[in-house]
């Protein structure tokens, strides 16, 4: 199972093509639109989300509500394109049109300057349009298909924000946290937090940051349950599933780090306080006493809950911009300003959740026979029975 995305932020549409989804998987556009709507929500979101109301159009690979094994094509129309039709035209236009919304003052922390250097662009908008987080719309659309497959196999996944800038909420999570609990709490509020005790303080904090023309980052946690042990492999570095997940998470715009389980905290503890002791019982087979390693051992799932966190840097587009250099004159200027949000953490959590779901679905389709979904389901059930009896 693999996919590609295409499209520019202010172009006519965004597109994704997914190959390798098993035939016979129930799939409706509403399954995808639910996730797209989640991505557009959250406290701190700005003007672009008031313009767009993302709805997917499935143009291939699905017939009568089920996948048919051929590539699935997903399209999302950019409603804002009507305001950019000439600026973003694929055909040649007059020079005066080309000069409109031309970008020569790269934003620190963005792809603008380095992308322009790499591809030799005079107008850095060529970089901005593709490097924009608008592309994550299709990462979410693809993830929605993956989540449907996982759900049909009894695998559930959810995210919540554990840090908003200076507000660290992880200390309040003293009890084991199930995916169902996250869905019942974080999914029901505009901050995507499990505990709303500090919700008003966090919203005021975000408002203060916005008034200052600044932005904040934070930390998002994704948890998944129902995965059998043995997904991924130790035999080659590039087959380790936790490595694949880490790569996918840092590929999301503005994400700069990943950890599993207790993560970097493990570096300051003795091994006796980090390793998860192995238990066995007749009902579940092998389990772990704790889950400090976040559900992974040797690059493979161990049957415990997957716990992965990603750190998102503050959005680099600032309404009080930092200093930059004009690429035409080489003189110092304040960086260009595009639409921006003080934070996009709740939305980024939806992106991360769907990106992780995609990797998990890819791994399942790679390990098991997956030409058609009933065959895949049977293979997974047979495998679960076998490892339980090990």
From TrEMBL:
SUPFAM superfamilies: Chorismate synthase, AroC. Its EC number is 4.2.3.5. GO terms for cellular component: cytosol. It catalyses: 5-O-(1-carboxyvinyl)-3-phosphoshikimate = chorismate + phosphate. Keywords: Amino-acid biosynthesis, Aromatic amino acid biosynthesis, FAD, Flavoprotein, FMN, Lyase, NADP. One of its GO terms (biological process) is aromatic amino acid family biosynthetic process. InterPro entries: Chorismate_synth, Chorismate_synth_AroC_sf, Chorismate_synthase_CS. CDD domains: Chorismate_synthase. Its cofactor is FMNH2. FMN binds at residues 130-132, 253-254, 298, 313-317, 339. Homotetramer. This is Chorismate synthase. It comes from Lactococcus protaetiae. The gene is aroC.
């Amino acid at each position: 199972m693999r996919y590609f995305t295409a499209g520019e932020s202010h172009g006519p549409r965004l597109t994704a093509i997914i190959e390798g989804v098993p035939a016979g998987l129930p799939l409706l556009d509403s399954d995808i639109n639910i996730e797209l709507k989640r991505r557009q929500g959250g406290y701190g979101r700005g003007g672009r989300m008031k313009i767009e109301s993302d709805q997917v159009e499935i143009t291939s690979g699905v017939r009568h509500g089920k996948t048919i094994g051929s590539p699935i094509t997903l399209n999302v129309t950019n409603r804002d394109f009507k305001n950019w039709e000439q600026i973003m035209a694929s055909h040649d236009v007059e020079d005066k049109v080309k000069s409109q919304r031309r970008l020569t003052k790269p934003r620190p922390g963005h792809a603008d300057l380095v992308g322009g250097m790499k591809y030799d662009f005079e107008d850095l908008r060529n970089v901005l349009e593709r490097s924009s987080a608008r592309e994550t719309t299709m990462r979410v659309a693809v993830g929605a298909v993956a989540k449907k497959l996982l759900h049909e196999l009894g695998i559930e996944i959810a995210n919540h924000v554990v840090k908003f800038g200076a507000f660290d909420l992880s200390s309040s999570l003293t009890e084991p946290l199930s995916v169902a609990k996250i869905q019942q709490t974080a999914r029901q509020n505009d901050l995507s937090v499990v505990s709303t005790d500090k919700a008003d303080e966090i919203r005021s904090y975000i408002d203060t940051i916005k008034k200052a023309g600044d932005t904040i980052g934070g930390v998002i946690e994704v948890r998944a349950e129902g995965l059998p042990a043995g997904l991924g492999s130790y035999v080659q570095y590039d087959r380790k599933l936790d490595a694949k997940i880490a790569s996918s998470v840092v590929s999301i715009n503005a994400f700069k780090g990943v950890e599993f389980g207790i993560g970097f905290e493990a570096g300051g503890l003795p091994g006796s306080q980090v390793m998860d002791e192995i238990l066995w019982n007749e009902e579940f087979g092998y389990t772990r006493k704790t889950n400090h390693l976040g559900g992974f051992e040797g690059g493979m799932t161990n049957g415990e809950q997957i716990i992965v966190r990603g750190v998102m840097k503050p959005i680099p587009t600032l309404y009080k911009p930092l200093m930059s250099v004009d690429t035409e004159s080489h003189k110092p200027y304040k960086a260009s300003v595009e639409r921006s949000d003080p934070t996009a953490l709740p939305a980024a959590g939806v992106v991360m959740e769907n990106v992780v779901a995609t990797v998990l679905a890819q791994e399942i389709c790679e390990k098991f026979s997956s030409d058609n979904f009933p065959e895949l389901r049977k293979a997974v059930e047979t495998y679960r029975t076998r490892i339980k009896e090990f």
